[in-house]
Specification:
With 313 residues, the protein is of the alpha/beta class. Helix content is 23%, strand content 19%.
Amino acid sequence: MKIIPLALVLALTATLAQAQAPAATTRPNILAVPADAPPQHAPALGPYAVTIETDASLPTHTLYRPTDLAAVKGKLPIVAWGNGACANSSERFTPFLTKIASHGFLVVAIGPKDAPPWTPNAAPGQGAPIVAPKTSASQLIDAINWAEAQNAKRGPYKGRIDTKAVAVMGQSCGGLQAIEASSDPRVKTTVVWNSGVIIDQGGMPKLSNATKDSLKAYHAPVAYFIGGPVDVAWPNANDDFARITAVPVFMGNLSVGHGGTYRHVNGGWFGEVGAAWLAWRLKGDKGAARLFEGPGCGLCVAPEWKIQKKNMD
């Protein structure tokens, strides 16, 4: 057994685990879809058309937001997003983030809109991996600060942003960034996708300042959505779940692997549950809560999902 090199791990978004594989001449494709993956699911978009843009006042990020801000019912909660592989582009997550924004959220994703699209993996065993630029958890805080400032100043967002409804979330390395940023007192929920604090660095350089002690800083409800036992984040996420005691925590596992369903139509299964979790936690949507609350919750009885919960009904 040998540790997969860091460059490979970054290129394939497995920045979250000390992944091990048998010695071989070809590298494993850890974004491969499991044989038992459920059929692709295409949830409907929300009621709002979405604009994707980079604002001149925040050139380091991409905004996913309702096109007609005046038409949005209520204010826009803030969703700060970190990309897999610490990538400086959210292009890989566009269908998923568009789904979220279409339900009346302001998504502020790390990476400018015109950043070169990130290529998540090359053909197994061929060529050098493509390594994305490094980003940091501080950019999630930048996203929140920017949204707060826009709400207070003259412009299209003035008075339209709910600065008391803030989520941080991300995939893989971006999930580590979200965990690290969760100590910010403005955060009202954290959503960790295909991620968890690495149990054993195994000599790997630090990818984030998130540690198991960071879990103690959770002060608001947390959700983990993982790709099942084949997901390299599986052991780390389960270890996180076992350690979290002070806040409500939900874990949903779907057998889709580390690559998730972000590029499926409207974000697929993950887009559906992500929009619902945020609608519940940031907008108080009781209908959305039924997917997660109670022993007979929607995901609890869905055959595709495996659910764990703590400190919840």
